[in-house]
TrEMBL record, chains A, B:
This is dITP/XTP pyrophosphatase. Belongs to the HAM1 NTPase family. Substrate binds at T7, R8, N9, K10, G11, K12, S68, F150, G151, Y152, D153, K173, H178, R179. Its cofactor is Mg(2+). Its EC number is 3.6.1.66. It is an enzyme of class 3 (hydrolase). HAMAP family: Non_canon_purine_NTPase.
Length: 198, 198
């Protein structure tokens, strides 16, 4: 059965294919007529649902979308849904990291706890929806380390490790990441809804 | 009775003199040997107490300090204690406003609610402390208006008004501001502790 993942990111599509085994996962590149959804939500769930519902309706197929971000405790969970545009420009990873590190410059090290969070949403063309969440707790460091990943990975060390998420291999990161956890939590829900029709 | 206000800002000293009538309010300019306190707290109360306690101890006199900021609801109350250094540099008002407006660029207007908050703290040389808080609810606009005030005043409209706090006269702003409210709430506590010795 075909499911659209509401992204044009090939890495994300490959990741979901590994997790949602048995489904035919396709990306938005197969639907060039579908426009990008503006993320006007103020929670991960709102944004994930906005994207999944819009794509399911436009494509006439079940759609999966996610919204993710870094939640820093002393910033009351921000950058949160604003993670990709924290410095004011969408997707400016380096500027976002520079800004975050400057903002917490006077905060003592032991207070630099944070977590990555992801909400994964499934929407059917009928409008029916389901969501699942995943988190990865850890803390921030003040100097970048590692060349893998993207976003805030170079300054985030997961609890129980000494490496940043940018120093983990893609497989190691999949196994523990907020996105991996959210998609694995969503997988049985997708199966239940689409295969058994429950 | 002499009270030190932990600031070198003449406007703040004049404001506290008007509110704490009957006390001899002096600023840090009379104590050039006292170093600036780094605001390592993550709440307004922590930072206000850090400053008041440090100055009371160093000066051997009762000291009053405050910490204030703008709390934006969709940012979970941030910039908050990071208001003055939101863009990464302390006191860069224009850059801070530019960044905040860019961050909420995709957020619908009706969700741009915010409030100014202030914690005012009194500390005695003995280590005894008291705090009082004040807030001013309102919402953000996307274009600056007004030439008074400082910080985020040009983009903040208090509830019940159509003008920004930068369009209010200093007297109008004193009457409703978070700082005015916090200091007026602290005044009877100061009197009680220092005059009646309760």
């Amino acid at each position: 059965m075909k499911i659209v993942l509401a992204t044009r990111n090939k890495g994300k599509i490959a990741e979901l294919r590994r997790i949602l085994d048995g489904f035919d996962i396709v990306g938005l590149e197969e639907f060039p007529e579908i426009e990008d959804v503006v993320e006007t939500g103020v929670t991960f769930e709102e944004n994930a649902l906005l994207k999944a519902v819009a794509v399911a309706k436009a494509a006439g197929l079940p759609a999966v979308a996610d919204d993710s971000g870094l939640c820093v405790d002393v910033l009351n969970g921000m950058p949160g849904v604003f993670s990709a545009r924290w410095s004011g420009r969408h997707g400016a990873d380096e500027a976002n990291i520079d800004l975050l590190l400057a903002q917490v410059g006077d905060v003592p090290d032991h207070l630099l706890t944070a977590y990555f969070a992801c909400c994964a949403a499934l929407a059917l063309p009928t409008g029916e929806t389901r969501v699942a969440v995943g988190t990865l707790p850890g803390s921030l460091i003040r100097e970048r380390r590692g060349a893998h990943g993207f976003g805030y990975d170079p300054i985030f060390v997961p609890d129980g490790d000494v490496r940043t998420t940018a120093e983990l291999s893609p497989g190691e990161k999949d196994a523990i990441s907020h996105r991996g956890r959210a998609f694995r939590a969503l997988a049985p829900i997708v199966t239940e809804l689409l295969v058994t029709g429950a």
